[in-house]
Amino acid sequence: EKMSKSVGNFFTLRDLVLKGYKPSAIRYLLASVPYRNQLNFTLDGLQGATTSVERLRNFRQRLSGKFADGSSLTMTRLGEHTSKRLRDAMDDDLNTAQAQAAIATAVAQSNAQQAQIEAAGRQVTEAQAALSFSKEQDARAQQLLKTGAGTVQNAQQTTSDLKQKQAAYDAAEA
Fold first, then answer.
1. Residue 54 CB neighbours (<10 A)
2. Burial, 33: exposed, middle or buried (Cβ in 10 Å; 0-12, 13-18, 19+)?
3. What tens digit of pLDDT does each residue of 6-64 get?
4. Range of 63-67, 128-132, 136-140 with top mean pLDDT
5. Cα–Cα distance for residue pair 93/35, rounded to 1 Å
6. Are the beta carbons of 31 and 83 closer than 8 angstroms?
7. What gap in Å lies between CA 52 and CA 25, rounded to an integer?
């Protein structure tokens, strides 16, 4: 369909910015198609570009300062592979769509790696909390027994609490 202002399917950059779209999203959408191909412009496509730009910004912010050069072999390899794919895409008649796909793949793979690291971190934190709790309970039981305030019943209750917590921890680990 032909674009025409009278039909209502024609937008200037100013119109799009006034509608609340960021110039970065407009650029991303325009770059999503190689320069020799025609772009099928839609507001849904522009919304998708907005989401992609936000995803890239969040990715950059989340990783900023986390990895010193060469500190993560996986991330180094991912960066090298992505860099090669970007160069290949640009050498292929400025294939910007292929370049954007390389970046999207790298973000997805990095996010998966980051999710694994965060899950491992949560498991370590939970294990530390469980061990810390057990030490606190041991200290409490020892204090009760030393002061004479602890009865056999208190000691048995503390032992029972510890067994329950250990069982819950073991179940979480399984």
1. 13
2. middle
3. 777 788 899 999 999 999 999 999 999 998 899 988 999 999 999 999 999 998 888 77
4. 63-67
5. 9
6. no
7. 8
Q: How far is Cα 24 from Cα 53, in angstroms, rounded to an integer?
A: 7
Q: What is the dihedral of CA 118, 124, 125, 127, to 10 degrees?
A: 150
The pLDDT value given to residue 130:
65
Mean pLDDT score of the chain: 81
Which among 169, 142, 147, 171 has a CA at the least distance from the CA of 158? 142
Q: Which two tokens stand for residue 46?
A: 């522009």
3-state secondary structure 89-147: HHHCCCCHHHHHHHHHHHHHHHHHHHHHHHHHHHHHHHHHHHHHHHHHHHHHHHHHHHH
Average pLDDT over residues 89-103: 93
Q: Which single residue is written with the structure tokens 């790696």?
A: 113
